[in-house]
Specification:
By secondary structure, this protein is α+β, with helices and mostly antiparallel strands. The chain is built from 14 helices and ten strands. The chain has two domains: about 200 residues, no CATH class; about 190 residues, no CATH class. Strands 2-3-8-5-7-6 form a six-stranded mixed β-barrel, surrounded by four helices.
């Protein structure tokens, strides 16, 4: 009761109450910022993973020399695993696309359209044409939207694909070149794919790159993408001649960087809460000094040092709890509405925070994880409690005779 009463402003200690209010605001700000940043990092991690896996695969099987001579038995054996939903063969190669004076280096992927729909999301992101337009022998090609714009081509126009492997002739090595007809464009929202990936039919890729029926590997889609490494080990145990490559190794630096950034941002922003708790220490020390006469009277009435300590722990706890709850409310409100708040700020300022040609994700995603919220709240309450210990201990050590000598 006394601790709660001390939190209310009095005429002679209004300045102390103001500092306590600033401490609450500091804790609330730190908690809110930490929740928002962690939610944005979670959303960014999920968006990057989903966009990469929209064009990549959960698990990739290949043979020695990154070549599979007979992919059908491998695909059949992999499909028997309970985690595997779909499988598709592919040819992965490099090439150069030219149109007029424009030229771009690209990754060329040979696919079977029907099977590819089961392991990737190209069909859902077609902005022109359809994936079924890739037919064997017709040498059709589907380009990323940014790549098509860079080359200045539209569906129905011709592009030349140059393979790095050349044909040996009496006149020397002549690059292999084949004209393809643009049959469509996709826009998956992942800049690396939209600006540097071209899809052709599997048989056309085999002819251009002289693979003679071989493929680069088989791509698999799993029920649980986080089980990819375990499934890969199990398939390699069944088929010793194959190698498994899971999604976490396709862009390891990117996934690792996002995780490290999340941890570092957590540590850095926790300092905001720590600074606010330092304000609590100064607030409580000033309050103890101001209330020495009250403490002395309570001691003479029989209050124990422990009860005096509890009075100021309660006051510090009130500051910590109120600040934490306010921060949780503000942080959750902002994190859950980030898709509305950020565009509004962009409209006011007149520029985009995340340009698509610079960042992987053109918007600010947010994904609130309950465990992150609970952890932030516990960290805030723990720091607030620790900040009350020293001032409360000093209050419990006040000597009544010394405190009342000049009263």
């Amino acid at each position: 009761m006394i601790g709660l009463r001390y939190t209310r402003a009095k005429r002679r200690n209004r300045f102390i109450s103001f500092i306590a209010l600033i401490s609450m605001a500091g804790i609330a700000l730190g908690v809110a910022v930490l929740i928002v940043v962690l939610s944005v990092m979670n959303g960014f991690q999920t968006e990057v993973r989903s966009r990469i896996l929209g064009v990549a695969s959960h698990l990739q099987l290949t043979g020695a020399g990154a070549v599979l001579r007979d992919w059908r038995p491998v695909a059949r054996a992999a499909s028997e695993h309970p985690q595997v939903i779909a499988s598709a063969p592919f040819v992965q190669a490099q090439g150069m696309l030219t149109s007029g004076r424009a030229a771009r280096g690209v990754g060329v992927r040979g696919i079977l359209p029907a099977e590819e729909d089961g392991v990737a999301d190209f069909g859902k992101h077609m902005v022109a044409g359809k994936l079924d337009a890739l037919k064997p022998g017709e040498f059709a090609i589907i380009l990323g939207a940014d790549l098509a714009r860079a080359l200045g081509v539209a569906p129905g126009e011709k592009v030349a694909l140059i393979a790095p492997q050349g044909n040996v002739t009496p006149a020397g090595v002549v690059p292999r070149l084949k004209q393809f007809t643009v049959a469509g464009m996709f826009d998956v929202g992942f800049n690396e794919a939209d600006s540097a990936l071209a899809l052709v039919h599997l048989e056309d890729a085999q002819k251009l790159y002289q693979l003679e029926g071989q493929v680069s590997g088989v791509r698999l889609k799993l029920k649980d993408l986080f089980a990819a490494r375990t499934v890969g080990r199990e398939l390699m145990a069944r088929m010793p001649e194959i190698f498994a490559w899971d999604w976490s190794r396709s862009h390891p630096n990117l996934f690792r960087a996002v995780q490290i950034e999340k941890r570092m941002m957590f540590l850095i922003l926790t300092l905001i809460i720590a600074v606010a708790t330092f304000n609590m220490v100064s607030t409580l020390v000033m309050l103890v000094t101001d209330k020495q006469a009250d403490i002395a009277i309570l001691r003479t009435l029989g209050a124990s040092p422990r009860s005096i300590l509890q009075v100021f722990v309660v006051q510090g706890a009130v500051i910590g709890v109120v600040g934490t709850l306010a921060g949780l409310a503000g942080g959750l409100l902002l994190a859950l509405n980030i898709d509305v708040v950020v565009p509004a700020i962009e409209n006011v300022l007149g520029f985009k925070f995340f340009a698509k040609d610079v960042y992987l994700i053109p918007n600010v995603p947010s994904e609130v994880h309950p465990d992150d919220v609970v952890f932030v709240a516990l960290i805030s309450l723990a720091l607030a409690f620790l900040a009350t210990l020293y001032p409360s201990w000093r209050a419990s050590r006040v000597n009544p005779a010394e405190a009342l000598r000049y009263e």
